[in-house]
Amino acid sequence: MLVIGIAGGTGSGKTTVAKSIITKLGSTNVTLISQDNYYLHHSGLTFEERERINYDHPRAFENTLLLQHLNMLKSGQPVDIPVYDFSTHARSQETIRIEVKPIVLLEGIHVLTDEDLRGALNIKVFVDTDPDVRILRRLTRDINERGRSLQSVFDQYLTTVKPMHDAFIEPSKKYADIIIPEGGENQIGISLLTILTERYMTDRAANYEIG
Ligand SMILES: Nc1ncnc2c1ncn2[C@@H]1O[C@H](COP(=O)(O)OP(=O)(O)O)[C@@H](O)[C@H]1O
Ligand SMILES: Nc1ccn([C@@H]2O[C@H](COP(=O)(O)O)[C@@H](O)[C@H]2O)c(=O)n1
């Protein structure tokens, strides 16, 4: 199984890049997993307490479960991954079944910051988009899709999103094999990744396999 990690700041276009690759290759051979599904649950906290959590710190995620699921997929077992509800800041009761496919695209803000997670990736990608573009995209998305107010997006951006991006996410770019400027607009970058993936599918014995 080939695992491609797609990191980058919030709103950089990680999901858009991943979905473009799936559109080009078809969903039969490629599956998408978002690190966001592995946000810690915090069942003992009230909504107000959950609202104040720093969701941009690397330790906000249950990466051990994510790694366990990647290992199960690699050994041929399907997995039931958590579903995360951004409007309640909690995992929902449901899970999603992920079947075994030859290619896994793993996208998330911190897929390159964690050493163990990096070790599970065959190709490491960083989507590099200017902060002003990212915050504008995030503002629109969080208000339209994640139940946020304008003020809450401002406050969260300044108190946690930007400081954590500067401290952890931007420095993780150095681990990338491929940097894709401007995300979904970069058709050449997306085509490059698609070609690499196609090549893997036609030659499973290629050098990408981790020992
Ligand atoms: N090139 C683009 N032009 C316009 N809007 C975009 C572009 N890329 C992404 N978006 C929008 O910006 C938001 C964040 O993009 P997304 O791919 O989900 O980023 P990420 O997964 O990095 O947070 C989404 O609403 C998406 O539709
Ligand atoms: N309860 C939560 C959990 C996470 N976030 C924000 O999501 C961002 C990561 O998702 P992207 O799709 O934008 O990569 C991250 O920056 C968190 O701030 C949230 O707002 N609430």
TrEMBL record:
Enzyme class of the recorded protein, top EC level: transferase
Domain Phosphoribulokinase/uridine kinase: 3-188
Compartment(s) where it occurs, according to its Swiss-Prot or TrEMBL record: Cytoplasm
GO molecular function ontology, one term from the record: uridine kinase activity
Pathway: Pyrimidine metabolism; CTP biosynthesis via salvage pathway; CTP from cytidine: step 1/3; Pyrimidine metabolism; UMP biosynthesis via salvage pathway; UMP from uridine: step 1/1
InterPro entries: P-loop_NTPase, PRK/URK, Uridine_kinase-like
SUPFAM superfamilies, A to Z: P-loop containing nucleoside triphosphate hydrolases
GO biological process, one term: UMP salvage
Keyword ATP-binding: yes
E.C. number(s) listed in UniProt: 2.7.1.48
Primary site of residence: cytoplasm
Entry keywords, A to Z: ATP-binding, Cytoplasm, Kinase, Nucleotide-binding, Transferase
GO CC annotation: cytoplasm
Family matches, as Pfam families: PRK
Catalysis: reaction(s): cytidine + ATP = CMP + ADP + H(+); uridine + ATP = UMP + ADP + H(+)
Keyword Amino-acid biosynthesis: no
Similarity comment: family membership: Belongs to the uridine kinase family.
Name of this protein: Uridine kinase
Organism: Paenibacillus oryzisoli
